[in-house]
Design brief:
This is Iron-sulfur cluster formation ABC transporter. With 177 residues, the chain is of the alpha/beta class. It is 37% helix and 14% strand. The strands form three sheets. Strands 3-6-7 form a three-stranded parallel beta sheet. The protein has a two-stranded antiparallel sheet with strand order 1-2. It is globular, with a radius of gyration of 16 Å. The N and C termini lie far apart (48 Å).
């Protein structure tokens, strides 16, 4: 059985990071992702693994963790198709290998698609707007706005104000030296 871990890499300098009552710094990457925390900075390419297979396996791993029955391929496709439309992605995208040969916009759309499919409770987006043209930026912003619900949170790091033309954060912080 193939197992994938969607996770962030954490370098512990001190302190703790509490999410849902658990210290994320004490958890293995796979456990963090199964708990609902997903983060991307530069997603890796996975040659030979199609997007639909990857998403279906990851989605079912999360469902197993939550004690929910897994979806078969046909049911999963029915779940996935509206999310592809939301991301302005064609259905042939599902058969492409994970992140392999993707343009910057396709890579970012795929990141958000993964967050949407896996129903992340907390999404950490680092420079999600980097390298996007105006159309891709609007598509990604629309999808990020769709991630924001009363039960889901997004922590977004950006160096550009242009993203804030399309995403209205609940809170904003500016860091300076």
């Amino acid at each position: 059985m193939l197992r994938f871990s969607l996770a962030i890499h954490i370098m512990k300098l001190g302190g703790s990071v509490i999410f849902k009552g658990e210290n994320l710094l004490d958890m293995e990457p796979e456990d963090r992702s199964l708990s609902g925390l997903l983060s991307f900075e530069s997603p890796v390419e996975i040659p030979g693994v199609s997007n639909i297979d990857f998403l279906n396996m990851a989605y079912n791993a999360r469902r197993r963790k939550l004690g929910i029955p897994e979806l078969g391929p046909i049911e999963f496709y029915a779940y996935l198709f509206p999310k592809l439309e939301l991301m302005n992605m064609t259905s042939d995208f599902r058969n492409r290998n994970v992140s392999e040969g993707f343009s910057g916009g396709e890579r970012k759309r795929n990141e958000i698609l993964q967050l949407e499919v896996l129903e992340a409770d907390l999404s950490v987006l680092d420079e999600i707007d980097s390298g996007l043209d105006a159309d891709a930026l609007q598509d990604v912003a629309k999808a990020v706005n769709g991630l924001l619900t009363p039960k889901k949170s997004v922590l977004m790091v950006t160096h550009y104000r242009r993203l804030l033309e399309f995403i209205q954060p609940s809170y904003g912080y500016t860091l300076s030296r």
